[in-house]
Write a structure and sequence with these properties.
With 81 residues, the protein is mostly beta strands. Helices cover 0% and strands 57% of the residues. Strand 7 and strand 8 form a beta hairpin. The chain is globular and about 30 Å long.
Length: 81
C-alpha cells in the first residue's frame, strides 16, 4: 500500500520548507493560517507525494531531504536543498 503526505495549498504565493527527517516545516511569506497541511500524515519509506490543489498537480520527493516548495499564481516548483 502506498501512503502519502498531502499539502493542500490555499494561499497564492508563499514558500514551504519541510524536513522529512525531522518531520517539521517552516514557512516564509504569508502566515500559516492561509493554508492547510497534513490531510494524511503517513508516507512510505521511499518518497513523499505533494499535491497542489490550485494547480491539480503532484510530485514525489525522496524522504530524509530538505526541500522548498514555492507556490505562486504562475505555478509551483520544488527546490531540493
Amino acid at each position: 500500500m502506498v501512503r502519502y503526505i498531502y499539502f493542500y495549498i490555499t494561499a497564492d504565493d508563499f514558500t514551504i520548507r519541510y524536513s522529512l527527517f525531522e518531520n517539521k516545516f517552516l514557512t516564509e511569506g504569508r502566515t500559516r493560517r492561509q493554508f492547510v497541511t497534513t490531510c494524511h500524515s503517513e508516507f512510505n519509506q521511499a518518497e513523499i507525494a505533494l499535491e497542489c490543489r490550485m494547480h491539480s498537480s503532484a510530485i514525489c520527493i525522496p524522504r530524509r531531504t530538505w526541500f522548498v516548495l514555492r507556490v505562486s499564481q504562475y505555478g509551483w516548483i520544488v527546490d531540493m536543498t
